Amino acid sequence: MxxxxxxxxxxxxxxxxxxxxxxVIGVLLGIPVLLDLTLIWGPTLASIGLSFTxxxxxxxxxWVGVDNYRTLFTDYPPFWPxxxxxxLWLAFLGFVATPFGLLLAVxxxxxxxxxxFYQSTLYMxxxxxxxxxxxxxxxxxxxxxxxxxxxxxNTDDPVDWLGDPDLNIWVVLLAAAWRxxxxxxxxxxxxxxxxxxxxxxxxxxxxxxxxxxxxRVVFPTLRPVNVIVGVITVIEALRAFDIVYAINxxxxxxxxxxxxVTDNIIGEASRIGFGSAIAVVLLTVSLxxxxxxxxxxxxxxxxx
Length: 304
Description:
mainly alpha; Carbohydrate ABC transporter permease; MetI-like; 72% helix; MetI-like_sf
């Protein structure tokens, strides 16, 4: 018996990795890290460095300091409309599309009839890229051959939904929200399925109505999902590119920072240094929102 106990004790000791184990671990960890450094951090650091230079991609690189940023903020008219549109994207997705996705998740979580059909239908746009969503928007909102103008009967004086700068940004936001809502709905629906039913029962016994139970009991337990949804919303809003480029190349009221980056880096001007400066501004804004949101969420988690 003591011999068996000693043998079991030896088995519970720390396992020694063989050289083969270390090689496998090194490959499994090394390849993703290498790809991350090569495809993400390498270009990011290169963009930061190039933002302080003047380079057309072919000739010599000339150091210009902060001249690109000074020109960007003071002498580049498309910048401020693009920055405003990016913030409008963030506000619309954050305060309209995301709450609507949460509402749909709550309704489907109640077990309504044909809930599987509704889930599949609402989630279907998520599998489409924003470029495809842009082409669908053109079919629906086109001035001369669009479905919407045909339905409302504006054949003599059709509304230019995608050409009018006062209207097209809202049309594009509706199309982007159509896709974003389904994604948010699935995330919150998964979170709602994991909520302990005993919490709802205890709240009901304490006399809480359905609304009070959700906002005071259920919603606080969804904090991890809120973090994920918040970060995804910020990323989706600030990296938006495909849909506006598919509609009118991001011009005439649909300017975005990502479009300006593309136009300057791979456009006819080939101002890689200036385009990199716009990319750095977009990166800074993205990190600012994401880090601030995560810090607030983590502080709230610690208070609990």
